[in-house]
Structure formats: structure tokens, C-alpha cells
Amino acid sequence: MHVLSLVCSLSPSPTPSSSHLLSDQVMEEFKKLGATGETIRVADHDVRPGVEIDMGGQDAWPALREKVLRADILLLATPIWLGHPSSICQRVLERLDAELSETDDQGRLLTYGKAAAVVVVGNEDGAHKVSADLFQGLNDVGFSLAPGAVTYWVGEAQHGTDYKDLDATPDEVAATTRTLAANTYHLAELLAERPYPPS
């Protein structure tokens, strides 16, 4: 199994990122299960706005899309901003919208055999709302989601503490992260063994 994590922090590398940190912790759990993985900070790439596979010019999405299509599992990590996923995360979903017109020779979306999961961090409420938005978007474009396909941390509302500033990972977050990895890995294996029927 191969996992691709798209980290949708608004900050490019090497700026420390809570989304990136929690994504790395999830990727470590996937590694324990035998998966390989790659993490990409989307802000490091010129992903153009739009809903096409290639928006032309120096658009970085076509190369990232190839990585998405090669992966068995897509992990989407985002901070919460004003109660919503980051604008970069929304852009990723918009670019994935192009997959709705891409099918195999049996009429199935190319994403149908792939599992997805979500990471959400913030120092404000909204993790359930943000994960619900991402679950729906990912499912709309063909990804499957296992039970417990999200791990998140939110600090006290209007507080300045970030996940990356914590001295240790809270036990509840660590347990949720393990569940996300185990269930999503299991689903991805099932999808690889038994593909969805033709549409």
C-alpha cells in the first residue's frame, strides 16, 4: 500500500506546521502497518485555480495528480481557518473535481479503488464540520472512507496554542490517529482485492 499525504497548510516549507506534524504522525502509523508514503506540502507548488486536470502554464497539479492516481490512500491534511478548511485544501478538492469525467474502460472513476482519510488541526472549534466537508467532497470524486477516517486536534477557542507547540501528543489524538491508519489501510487492502463493479 502506498499513501500520499497532501498537507494544505497555508505556509510553505520549511515553516513549522501543525497540519504537517499531525500528518507525519498518521504517516508513521501507516508505516507501522507496512505502507510506504510520501508527504507533499501543497503550498510549495503552483497549483492553479480551476476544475480541469491541467490549467496550463506552469500548473503543478498534473504532476501531483499523477501521484494521487498512483497512491492507494490519499491523506488530506488541513488547518481550520474561519471555521473552514484552508483555501489550499479547497483548491485541491476543486482540482479533484476533474476526476468526475475520467473513467476506466468499464466506466468507473479512476479514484474508485482508493481510500481517503483526513487530518484537521486548529485553535478554534470546527473539526467535525471541516471533516464533514472533506468527507463529502472526497466521496463525491470517488474516494472511499473507512469508519474513523479522521484524526484531529483543536485547542481552546480563541487561544494561541498550536498543535505543534504541545509538549506531547494527547492520548486521545494518538488513539484516533492509530484507528484512522488501521481502518483506512484495511479498507485500501479490501479495495485492491475486490474492486467496485462497473458502473
From TrEMBL:
Q: Which InterPro entries match?
A: Flavoprotein-like_sf, FMN_Rdtase-like_dom
Task: Write down the Gene3D superfamilies for this protein, in alphabetical order.
Answer: 3.40.50.360
Start and end of every NADPH-dependent FMN reductase-like domain?
A: 1-148
What the entry lists under Pfam families is as follows: FMN_red
What's a single GO MF annotation on this record?
A: oxidoreductase activity
- Identify the domain of life: Bacteria
Question: What is the name of this protein?
Answer: Flavodoxin
